[in-house]
Amino acid sequence: QGFIMNKQKDTSCLNLTNEAYVDSPTGGFVGTSDFSIECWFKTTDSNAWLLMKGEQGGGGKRYALYVHTSNYLTAEIDDDSTFVTWNGSATVNDGDWHHAVVTFDRSGTGQIYLDGSTDGSATSISSSTGSLDPTNHRDFTVGGNSDPSTLKPYTGQIDGVTVYTKVLSLTEVQKNYNATRASHRN
């Protein structure tokens, strides 16, 4: 009861093409606490933004997850006084579904997880303790930079975007991955 047995895989996710993205004025994490962001994605793009909150450049107060020009995931945090970026290591623009989680332990490290496993090394973000308050900053966006002048649009599919107000453990990341991977078969 309650679920459709013949659900098409491509219809329940966000399908983005040619500079389309989602803008949520009230979405995303704000403040100084720990948090995590999560999504499923499928693309052949490089240099394209998956998730972002805040503004690039001076007065940034932002965090982001994107596909780097070298085809791996990159995460960023910027509290307007400290900017930290860290990279995954696996190629992700292969046209397959991937599950991504980024954890932001504000007094410790940032970590990227890909398909239920760590991707790249944990990176110290303990110097980025300032507020990510978006009062005068850009919205939470899915599939593009929150600054339209540097959009770097994402072409592909995004599903299951979730923001947590805590750092997910590896066990929780694996549980989320295993619970939703059947809906994201290649």
The number of strands is 13
- Share of residues in helices: under 10%
Overall 3D form: globular
Rg on CA atoms, Å:
16 Å
Number of helices: 1
Strand content: 35-45%
Identify the quaternary structure here: single chain
**Broad structural category:** mainly beta
Unreliable segments (pLDDT under 50, ≥5 consecutive)? Answer: 1-9
Overall mean pLDDT score? 82
**Largest sheet entry:** 7 strands, antiparallel
Give the SSE order as H and E letters: EEEEEEEEEEEEEH
Give the N-to-C terminal Cα separation. 26 Å
Can you put this structure into words, describing what you see?
This protein has 186 residues and is mainly β. 6% of the residues lie in helices and 37% in strands. It is built from one helix and 13 strands, in the order βββββββββββββα. The strands form two sheets. Strands 1, 3, 8, 9, 10, 11 and 13 form a seven-stranded antiparallel beta sheet that branches. It has a six-stranded antiparallel beta sheet with strand order 2-12-4-5-6-7, with no helix packed on it. The longest helix is centred in the C-terminal third of the chain and has 11 residues.
